[in-house]
Amino acid sequence: MSGPNKNYDPVEVTPLHADEVDRTRDEALEAFRAAPDLAALQEAKVAHLGERSPIALANREIGALPPQGRKEAGQRIGSARKAINEAYASRLAVLEAEHEQRMLATEQVDVTLPWPAPQLGARHPLSLISEQIADVFTALGWDVAEGPEVEAEWLNFDALNFQPDHPARQMQDTFFVEPAGSGTVLRTHTSPVQARSMLTRKPPIYVICPGRVFRTDELDATHTPVFHQVEGLVVDEGITLAHLKGTLDHFVVSMFGEGLQARLRPNFFPFTEPSAEVDLLCFVCRGDSVGNPDRPCRTCGSEGWIEWGGCGVVNPRVLQACGIDPERYSGFAFGMGLERTLMFRNGVQDMRDMVEGDVRFSRQFGMEI
Ligand code: DAH
Q1: Per the CB 3.0–4.6 Å rule, which of 20, 239, 248, 274 could disulfide with 262?
Q2: Ligand 1, residues 174, 198, 207, 231: which to mutate, most atoms within 8 A of Cβ?
Q3: What is the mean pLDDT of residues 310-336?
Q4: pLDDT higher than threshold 50 for residue 8
Q5: Fold category of 125-363 in CATH
């Protein structure tokens, strides 16, 4: 910048010539008009309206003019700047509108297109059924009890009155935990939770124990080496077989529907005396298929009853082994397999479906929480 003209001499300032100002303005107008997009317009703005643009520099030169020349030059520069600013603003409006149109066109969303729905998981039916069972019994005021899957051999067998040489011990094919003689097994049933409950609680004891158990079976349609059972145990004063039968009937109705009941068939288990098999009145034919070849029942094989589990009055020797006075207390226990229950209750044909973890299998049982 030339600085104020103190001498009032006429000064020739080229950028302020009318022709030059017009040219500067026209160049700017042309640059804005030619800018194809917002980025180019921004560049043109810096070049033609920025601090170092010809028009800005010319504006600064006004001060170098003698006073009588300033007004005219000021007006000329002012109207040129106004024209440039307006040209910029109108081009900006056009380009912004174009940009918006383009965005609307390219970012258009077709809400009718199919979309990749996220796959929802599902709870495993064995989790659902064991919670349903726990609910039936907690509603009666019972506790849910748990025990470890790697269990002391003593609790799995001895405390339950399986003698060391008792053939009953061979009834179950056991996974023994190494080293040999460690006295530790993968529990073969949930019955050791009975012993644990009696050892850690004082009567009255009312517990339900769902859990995972292990036997050396090959995996096939009806066997799996890892499966689930639920165990029930009551120890209180004056408990009889009648309480067991009433409890099982309630359990059956809660799980399979009104009008159904349990049947006890004598059997042997070392930890209960007397012991029985629990059968369930077939919830499909309700016994009508028995001796009725015209109406066969696939669920019970036209037997009328479905084998469900084992039960009995707690053997006084077990009470004693667990520190409970059999003179004062008595109890009952029952246990059943959950995979088997699901098989006949829900028509699952192949146990491997319960093992493989395919969500399509689990989803069929609904999203109950
Ligand atoms: N623990 C037995 C089994 O795995 C089932 C059983 C039978 C449980 C009789 C009981 C019972 O509580 O009283 O075969």
Answers
A1: 248
A2: 231
A3: 97
A4: no
A5: BirA Bifunctional Protein; domain 2 (3.30.930)
